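Sequence and structure are kept together here, with a separate record for every protein. A complete record is shown below as an example:
=====
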Amino acid sequence: MSLQLILGSSGAGKSHYLYTHIIEESMKNPDRNYIVVVPEQYTMAIQKRLVSMHPRKGILNIDVVSFERLAYKVFEEVCEDNLEVLDDTGKNLIIKRVLEQNKDRLKYFGSNLSNTGFVSEMKSVISEMLQYDIKPDVMQDAAGAAYSESEGSAALQYKLDDIVLVYNAFAEYIDKNYITKEEILDKLCNKVTGSERIKNCEIVFDGFTGFTPVQYNLLTILLSMCPKIYVSLTIDASERENSVRGREELFFMSKDCVSKLYKICDEEHVKVLEPVYIAGREVPGKNVIVNVNSRFKNSEELDFLEQNLFRNNSGRFNQKTDNIVIYEGAVAKEELTFAAGEIIRLTRLCGYRYNEIAIVTADMDGYGKLAANILKQNDIPYFLDYKRHVTDNPFIAAINGALGIIENNYSYDSVLGFLRTGMSGMEREDIDLLDNYCVAVGIRGRAKWHEPWIRKFRGTVNNTDLEKLNSLRTMITDMLDPLEEVLKSKESDVADMVKALYEFLVREDMEKKVSVLNDSEYTGDEYTQLYKKVIEVLDKMYALLGSEKVGVKEFNKILASGFQEIKIGLIPQTNDCVVIGDIERTRLDNIKVMFFVGINDGNVPKKADSRSVLSESDREYLENKGIVMSASVREKAFTQRFYLYLIMTKSAEKLYMSYAVKNSEGAVLMPSYIIRNMRKM
């Protein structure tokens, strides 16, 4: 049993060295299994990479998995009954129901239930507790301590009491029927020792910047079971990997991970092998493997940038910089127009392929769709790596609108809001006619919509118009009456309501309407995904809450909380395309040219999201009590800096950095501190 660390700076060639080594070992030992564990979104890319690197173009005894997929493979081997996994949508549905059931018992959050996003925030805190293995009794003890005058406040105690109440109610609701994604690794920790396959397996962990407490628990077990564990981490070869000075260090996350792994090995009596250092050059005082094919072999500027970025080095690059460009645009559109022009030049005149180019940003909302539109206008193939929330989509708005009409008893706003989604099947001129008549005559309430309209006003409505108006009126009531009958019946439970809503969608042929919807934000397969996702939410409500009795208002709230978790994303339609992505989420491989756009204050570093059930002071108090959850604002700032280092050193040959002087409203913007520091290099 041993631990082997593979260490090196960004672009040094850690992964290439590690994969080459594993391929060689797998060929020498065909009877031994090798598992490569990487982040979920990177599994397919690494599979392709290993196959292309393998001399036989096959990896029969090498498996590439994520943590979750590793768990399922073990469960399958040990014949473990798999409980259905509860995703974020299912959590939202249950937590919303739990909150409504216990609203009178909530001491602090009782008035927050109707706030937009509150359910998702509560779900995030519960997910954190599961992910960081924080038991409710530990949180309850902290709540009790918070009440004492010397240690905290009654407000924090009430918060923690409410969180524990919701956590316990949530756990009780899913007990013996479901398991959350965060609990899968807990379950794996209990079952992995029964896996004969794992006992004879060498495991590689690559592409991680650190691990969660539950993942460390699993690593503790694996280190005691497996012949050898490899972990690759990004640390400059000149650094001491076991010396942590503080969070302000660039490589703190990697060093902290090394420290925790060494501690585990010491406690479990696991042998720690001498770390393998990979570098692009010799390092004084260190035995390193010099990789002459490091990422920056063709770019002195990018090599210099990697060595000096976020370091205390005082060196300056005193040569002409052709491979690093800083561009100032008047607005975001000008930045991206410049990028599109450069992409055309590079592909047509310099021999680059589209799949060797990427556009990244910290502000996908402001730059993602705009970049896609500009590339489309210039006939540049692209892939927008972005999962969109769909709560403002016309289809979702139509469902919410139809339910809103029933809940609000045919109020004027609810009826016209539904009709103007474009999903009612009614022509715009007819909607305008209805709108004018309702305003002029004062049509309000269900009773008015279910009796003939006979009033005229100022001679502008004749008998023909009244005929048409009544036809439109009955079209709406006939559409909604079957749904309303079920939703307002005292005998109906959630299952009945879900079934009635599904029948409404089928009756109104919503799937077809969604597929032909002419909306610039959603095109192609995204519409198909959206309809399927909505049906999945209905299926989850039916399965999770089917026997519950709720009113129309609560049903609508639960459904809305489910819709909040729907995100739409696509896979690339072609291999040869420019990737547009986020600096933290998007995984890039073999990129030669990168356009880093929107490098303005507020975007880089990104402003801290203050929306949370627990404030920063609450988290600091809990950390002092030994309850460590996700990173604080200060820690996230240092984490962002590390991610910036990783993304800015991702391209092999050229780096374009740009910022805007003004936003779309004309307000003045400042370039990020990174731009200012780059100009000093």
Remarks:
- The longest helix spans residues 463-487.
- The mean pLDDT is 88.
- The longest strand covers residues 2-8.
- DSSP finds 26 helices and 18 strands in the chain.
